[in-house]
C-alpha cells in the first residue's frame, strides 16, 4: 500500500498520460526559514537567489530586515531594516545580485534602488530614470555583463521591461504589454528569464507565446504554440482560504467579474519561464488532478523534449530553477479533498519558508 501511495504522489496524470514530477524525492534538499535557522516568516512569496548560492529572504507581511542564507540553508546574517534613513527600506518588492555580489533592492515605489555590499553594508542609492521611477518594480535581474533588467507595471495596466546600463544610468524599454486593466486579486504578471548569452525571454500574459530578445534588446525569435481552450475565470475561482484555512468565497467577486472584459476574463496560457542547464521550463496554467501545474520543457532550439509538473501560483511565478534545483515557497498541498474546493487565484498553503528540491534526473539529462 505504501508503495502504491508513493507512486500516486509523485506522478501526475493529464489526459491519461503520465507526466513525471519536476523534482526527485518527497523531501526538500534544503530549507530556508525553519527551526534549524531560528528564522520564521508569516508570508514569504518573494526572494532573491545569488549566483554564488546565497539566498535572500524577507517577510512580506512584517518586514524588518533581509535575511541571508548560504546554499545549504544555514542562516548567515541580516541587513537593512524598516525605516526611511540611509540603507532603510519600507519593504522589499524585489531585487538582484550583480557579479560582485552586491545586492540591489527596491521597495517597488522608491525613486532609487539601494545597493548593499556582499556583507550587507549599505553602499549607496542608484537613482532610477524618471520613466522607471514612476512605475512599480516587480522583478529585476542582472545578466552576465551586469546589465540590469527590470519588469514594472504602471497605473494603466501596462507591464514594461527595461534594459538598464547601471554605469551610465540609462534605461530603455525592451518590451511592453498592454492588456485590459486588472482588478483586485485578478492580476496576472508575465515572467522573464535570462540565458547565458544575455538573451531575454519574456512570457505573454494571455497567449502561449514566449518572446526572445538579444542582449541589445532586439527581437530575436518567438515561440508561439496554438493550443486553444483558454480557461475562463468563473465564480468558483474566487473560493479561497480564510485566516483559519477554511474555504470561503471572496466577498467582492461579483463586482470583480463584472469589471473583467476581453483578455482579462481568462487565465494566461503560460505564466512562468525558467532557464537552467540548457533547458527552458515553461509553466502552463494547465493542472493535473492534484492541482499541480504542467511544465513544458524545451531545449534552446524550442524543441519540446518533455513535460513535468509541480505546485506554483498562476498569478505570479513563485518558482525559480537554478543550478539543477527548484526553489519554491512552501505552497505544496497534497490534500486533494481540500485543494479541489478552491480556485486558481490563491496559494494552496501558507508560504512560510523556502524549499529547494533537486530537479528530477530524467528531466535534467534530456538536454
What is the arithmetic mean of pLDDT? 88
Unreliable stretches: 1-11
Rg, alpha carbons: 20 Å
Largest sheet: 4 strands, antiparallel
Tally of helical segments: 5
Order of strands across the widest beta sheet?
3-28-27-26
Class based on secondary structure composition and strand pairing: mainly beta
Work out the strand percent: 35-45%
Helix content: under 10%
Shape verdict:
globular
Description of the structure:
The chain is mainly beta. The chain is 7% helix and 39% strand. It is built from 5 helices and 28 strands. The strands form 8 sheets. A 4-stranded antiparallel β-sheet has the order 3-28-27-26, with no helix packed on it. The chain has a 4-stranded antiparallel β-sheet with strand order 4-5-6-7, with no helix packed on it. Strand 23 and strand 24 form a beta hairpin. The chain is globular, with a radius of gyration of 20 Å.
Compile the SSE list and pairings.
Elements: H1 2-9, E1 11-14, E2 17-20, E3 30-32, E4 47-49, E5 55-57, E6 66-69, E7 75-79, E8 94-97, E9 103-106, E10 112-116, E11 122-127, H2 130-133, E12 136-142, E13 147-153, E14 158-165, E15 170-178, E16 192-194, E17 200-203, E18 209-213, E19 219-224, E20 239-241, E21 247-249, H3 253-259, E22 270-276, E23 279-287, E24 293-298, E25 304-310, E26 320-322, E27 325-329, H4 336-339, E28 354-358, H5 361-364
Antiparallel strand pairs: 1-2, 3-28, 4-5, 5-6, 6-7, 8-9, 9-10, 10-11, 12-13, 13-14, 14-15, 16-17, 17-18, 18-19, 20-21, 22-23, 23-24, 24-25, 26-27, 27-28
Amino acid at each position: 500500500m505504501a508503495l502504491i501511495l508513493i507512486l500516486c504522489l509523485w506522478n501526475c496524470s493529464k489526459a491519461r498520460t503520465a507526466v513525471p514530477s519536476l523534482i526527485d524525492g518527497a523531501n526538500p534538499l534544503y530549507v530556508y526559514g525553519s527551526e534549524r535557522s531560528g528564522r520564521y516568516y508569516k508570508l514569504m512569496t518573494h526572494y532573491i537567489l545569488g549566483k554564488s548560492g546565497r539566498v535572500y529572504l524577507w517577510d512580506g507581511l512584517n518586514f524588518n530586515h533581509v535575511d541571508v542564507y548560504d546554499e545549504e540553508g544555514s542562516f548567515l546574517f541580516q541587513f537593512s531594516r524598516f525605516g526611511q534613513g540611509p540603507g532603510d527600506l519600507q519593504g522589499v518588492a524585489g531585487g538582484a545580485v550583480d557579479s560582485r555580489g552586491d545586492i540591489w533592492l527596491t521597495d517597488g515605489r522608491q525613486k532609487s534602488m539601494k545597493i548593499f555590499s556582499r556583507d550587507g553594508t549599505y553602499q549607496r542609492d542608484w537613482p532610477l530614470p524618471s520613466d522607471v521611477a514612476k512605475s512599480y518594480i516587480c522583478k529585476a535581474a542582472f545578466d552576465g555583463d551586469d546589465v540590469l533588467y527590470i519588469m514594472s507595471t504602471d497605473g494603466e495596466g501596462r507591464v514594461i521591461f527595461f534594459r538598464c546600463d547601471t554605469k551610465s544610468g540609462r534605461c530603455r524599454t525592451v518590451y511592453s504589454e498592454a492588456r485590459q486593466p486588472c482588478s483586485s486579486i485578478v492580476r496576472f504578471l508575465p515572467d522573464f528569464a535570462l540565458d547565458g548569452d544575455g538573451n531575454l525571454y519574456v512570457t505573454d500574459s494571455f497567449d502561449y507565446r514566449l518572446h526572445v530578445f538579444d542582449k541589445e534588446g532586439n527581437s530575436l525569435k518567438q515561440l508561439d504554440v496554438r493550443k486553444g481552450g483558454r480557461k475562463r475565470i468563473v465564480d468558483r475561482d474566487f473560493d479561497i482560504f480564510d485566516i483559519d484555512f477554511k474555504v470561503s468565497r471572496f466577498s467582492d467577486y461579483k463586482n470583480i467579474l463584472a469589471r473583467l472584459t476581453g483578455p482579462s476574463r481568462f487565465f494566461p496560457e503560460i505564466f512562468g519561464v525558467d532557464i537552467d542547464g540548457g533547458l527552458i521550463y515553461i509553466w502552463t496554467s494547465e493542472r493535473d488532478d492534484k492541482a499541480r501545474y504542467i511544465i513544458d520543457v524545451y531545449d534552446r532550439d524550442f524543441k519540446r523534449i518533455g513535460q513535468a509538473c509541480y505546485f506554483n501560483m498562476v498569478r505570479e511565478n513563485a518558482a525559480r530553477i537554478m543550478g539543477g534545483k527548484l526553489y519554491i515557497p512552501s505552497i505544496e498541498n497534497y490534500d486533494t479533498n481540500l485543494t479541489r474546493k478552491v480556485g486558481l487565484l490563491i496559494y494552496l498553503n501558507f508560504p512560510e519558508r523556502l524549499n529547494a528540491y533537486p530537479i528530477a534526473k530524467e528531466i535534467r539529462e534530456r538536454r
